[in-house]
Write a structure and sequence with these properties.
heterodimer, A: 346 residues, alpha+beta, 6-stranded mixed β-sheet, 8 helices, 34% strand, B: 270 residues, mainly alpha
């Protein structure tokens, strides 16, 4: 077992708590996405694992070894930076060989391993180029190759795709995932892009104000966010609140949602069905259609309900002949299990 | 009706030609005396008589004048020693200032610049008194120490300016790959600083090689540097030989400055 574990990790910068009592296990060989808004502490957590940040309290284990007293250069990590941080005075091959060189790997082995990893990231013939002669996507691959060639115990990625344009980013996501699967290194990945986190990660952790709010497999967290912050941060959510009664949740407009025992629920925009006729299901509300937005295959409706703005998305065909605007009253309904209970309604 | 249309076109033209004329005048004031001197060093007449007759006599005489050759050689090797010492000390000081925060850092940094503005006459007097107080007295060691002190701010400013463009994540990247601080310095920081260090070294060489006032105060009469020797020679009587040696000094100094400017890349990056 050589995953990574942090226990009770805390770090303050003056009055700002960058990390507060974070305990988390990053499974061996897994791809773990850390996400949160800016200032949530995700980068501080990554840099604490790397050793660039000294935590005030708590422990860090890399492959069962406590590393609090270990310098960055002795932690055997691989790191990919947002700016890639390729050495401009060295060629691609020299950049990749750097970590092997400081480990005093003999030149012949070094050359073989550099060639292997260049193949892995599909940059075979570019070893003699300088970083300034590469495209953004190629630099990204070099940074990745340089970080994994030393066979580190953990690979740390700090928003590695944020400098790329959208099309290239999607391509590199697939590449990153493939490379990580092939080498099987425990990988921790920081991003503020929730879609990227869902695509890449086996597990995600969501941070807010230095605290770990939620963690688990992406689908499990998405399908059961448990709190309003997670529901809104991971995907989009309409939050409905009310009073809990014996029979269920009584909403502000008097609707009773049977069988719900929490004071709030989250509804995903894609889980809602819209219709002009009253549905048979008790899981429905009557709202004002403010706007219907056409965007190709998918359509979006913006609705007013009890002074609150709701949003739903559906295939444009499924929206039928709803008007573009004009504000008719429409019924919104959903399957019984689609209302996700929240422990902490706002 | 036409005037308002023409005006915006004419104005920049006037302004541009004025700027050109101004620049031309500056260059004339800067280079005309030097050009006259260079031409006269190649004129056969000892009394600057015209018409011009080409001759290399003064250069030939120069290269058989042992006194001037000895002073020139002394100037060169002193400047080399000064460049090496000032660049070494200056680079280390710069990296410390750039890298670390310590109490008094701002004051230290602020104190580096006034010596550039203090008249050399005063610096020279102060150094002479100071060196006599210390027991070093006059002589070549005093000249070297004095020149190093004069050259240090130039080295520090040049190297520091270069380090401003260093991306600190490069250092983090190197450490994440297992490099110890000395390796990071040697493989990542110094290669970045190199153009600044070379430019700083060239400046230090030029500061020492062109230095007159401080050398005049600190050198012993027997072993003057070239500028001091030229000054003494002029006092005895001006000969075209001085034109010749001065022309050579100017060519060397200009070459060094052009090189330094290329390495320092004033106002721009690679």
């Amino acid at each position: 077992m050589s995953g990574v574990r942090v226990e009770g990790l805390s770090k303050s910068y003056g009055p700002t708590k960058a990390l507060e009592d974070v305990t988390l296990t990053f499974p061996d060989g897994g791809f773990f996405g850390l996400l949160g808004p800016s200032g949530s502490g995700k980068t501080t957590l990554l840099r604490a694992i790397a050793g660039f940040v000294q935590p005030d309290r708590g422990r860090i284990f890399i492959g069962d070894q406590p590393v609090e007293g270990t310098a960055v250069e002795d932690r055997n990590i691989g790191m990919v930076f947002q700016s890639y941080a390729l050495f401009p005075n060295m060629t691609v091959a020299e950049n990749i060989a750097f970590g092997l060189e400081v480990r005093r790997i003999p030149p012949a082995d070094r050359a073989r391993r550099v060639a292997e990893v260049l193949e892995l990231v599909q940059l075979g013939p570019l070893g003699n180029r300088k970083p300034s002669e590469l495209s953004g996507g190629q630099r990204q691959r070099v940074a990745m190759a340089r970080a994994i060639v030393t066979r580190p115990k953990v690979l740390l990625l700090d928003e590695p795709l944020s400098a790329l344009d959208r099309a290239l980013r999607v391509e590199m996501q697939i590449e990153l995932k493939r490379i990580q699967r092939e080498v099987g290194i425990t990988t921790i990945f920081v991003t503020h892009d929730q879609e990227e986190a869902l695509t890449l990660s086996d597990q995600i952790g969501i941070l807010k104000d230095g605290r770990l709010v939620r963690h688990g497999p992406p689908r499990a967290v998405y399908d059961d966010p448990q709190d309003a912050f997670t529901a809104r941060f991971l995907g989009e959510a309409n939050i409905l609140t009310g009073m809990v009664e014996a029979a269920g949740l009584r909403l502000a407009d008097g609707t009773l949602l049977p069988g719900i025992t929490s004071a709030g629920v989250a509804l995903r925009p894609e889980a809602i069905t819209v219709s002009l006729d009253e549905p048979a299901s008790p899981h429905r509300i009557l709202a004002h259609l403010r706007q219907r937005i056409f965007s190709g295959a998918m359509g979006t409706c913006i609705l007013d309900w009890q002074g609150q703005t709701l949003k739903l998305t559906a295939p444009d065909r499924a929206l039928g002949d709803l008007p573009e605007s004009g504000g008719p009253m429409v019924w919104l309904s959903w399957a019984a299990g689609a209302a996700l209970p929240l422990r902490d309604p706002p | 009706m036409i005037r308002p249309m023409i005006r915006p076109m004419i104005r920049p033209m006037i302004r541009q030609s004025f700027a050109r004329a101004y620049l031309g005048l500056i260059l004339i004031f800067l280079y005309a005396p030097i050009a006259v001197m260079a031409v006269m060093s190649l004129n056969a007449s000892e009394f600057y008589a015209l018409p011009f007759r080409f001759s290399t006599e003064w250069y030939e005489r120069l290269f058989t004048n042992d006194e001037i050759l000895a002073a020139a050689w002394r100037s060169v090797w002193i400047a080399l020693v000064v460049a090496v010492i000032a660049t070494g000390l200056g680079t280390m000081a710069t990296l410390a200032l750039w890298r670390h925060d310590f109490p008094g850092k701002r004051i230290l940094q602020a104190l580096l610049f006034p010596p550039i503005a203090v008249p050399w006459l005063i610096t020279g007097t102060a150094m002479l008194i100071f060196f006599f107080g210390l027991g070093i007295g006059r002589g070549t060691p005093a000249v070297i120490i004095g020149h190093v002190a004069l050259a240090l701010p130039y080295v520090i400013v040049t190297v520091f300016a270069r380090m401003q463009s260093f991306d600190r994540t490069l250092e983090e990247a190197a450490r994440s790959l297992g490099a110890r601080p000395m390796t990071v310095a040697r493989r990542v920081i110094l290669p970045h600083a190199a153009p600044g260090i070379i430019a700083g070294g060239l400046f230090a060489f030029a500061v020492s090689f062109d230095q007159f006032v401080v050398s005049y105060f600190l050198a012993e009469p027997g072993d003057s540097t070239l500028p001091v020797l030229i000054y003494s020679a002029i006092r005895k009587g001006f000969t075209p030989e001085i034109n010749a040696v001065s022309t050579l000094i100017i060519l060397l100094s200009m070459a060094i400055m052009i090189l330094a400017a290329r390495y320092a890349r004033f106002g721009g990056t690679r």
